[in-house]
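Thread: "does anyone have the structure for this chain?"

Original post by V.I.:
We have the sequence but no experimental structure in hand. Need at least a predicted one for the grant figures.
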Amino acid sequence: MRVGLILCVVFFCPFSFLANAEEQKKDWMDMFKNAIPEHIDPRYYLDNLYQYTRDLVLDHQKAYSLEWYQKAAEQSFAKSQYKLGQMYREGEVVPQDDKKALTWLQKAAEQGHAEAQFDLAYLYHNGQVVSQNYAEAHKWYQKAAEQGHPIAQGALGFFYEHGYGGSQNLEKAYLWYTIAVSNGFKEVIKWQKQLSTLLNTQQIAQVKIQAEQWLAEHD
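Reply from O.Q.:
Generated one for you, tokens below.
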């Protein structure tokens, strides 16, 4: 019964609210709150509410789902913080606001959200929203890479290869390129091959063993 009510709230009920948006706000919110099982943390529903409704409901109802998204983010739910940061950065539903976007991305990244860590690294890497800072970019690429983010792994390899944000380390660069490729980020294969010409056979063999160990530990 509750599952059906949730589906009604998310997918079908919005189209019955074509009258006065403000008059329907309380009903919509009450229905959503009542649809959540008491023993379940509501933040797990809140986290996905916006993505389910974004293409299905009217603008005023997107605003209501945003209100719940905001509540989840303020309760330190990292996935909601990350998505809220994305919304502010893209100006979707809310006015575009780089400062708020950075705030929410930072909060999510500090809680270990890999996508937020990658996005934050990218901003520091390219000097977008924040001043360019290779050391900060390196730090956040490292954190995201260690959580299995393939593009962050490739970026980290690039940073190690060129000494961005720290000391140059060609073996670590080859290691992270190898891990990134194994995780599906094929775009760095050309960099991996180019780098292999600067390492000897023993170094490459040792790095491949390290990569296999890392992948086995993070499978």
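V.I.: this helps a lot. The two ends are 38 Å apart (CA to CA).
O.Q.: and The domain at 1-111 is CATH 1.25.40 (Serine Threonine Protein Phosphatase 5, Tetratricopeptide repeat).
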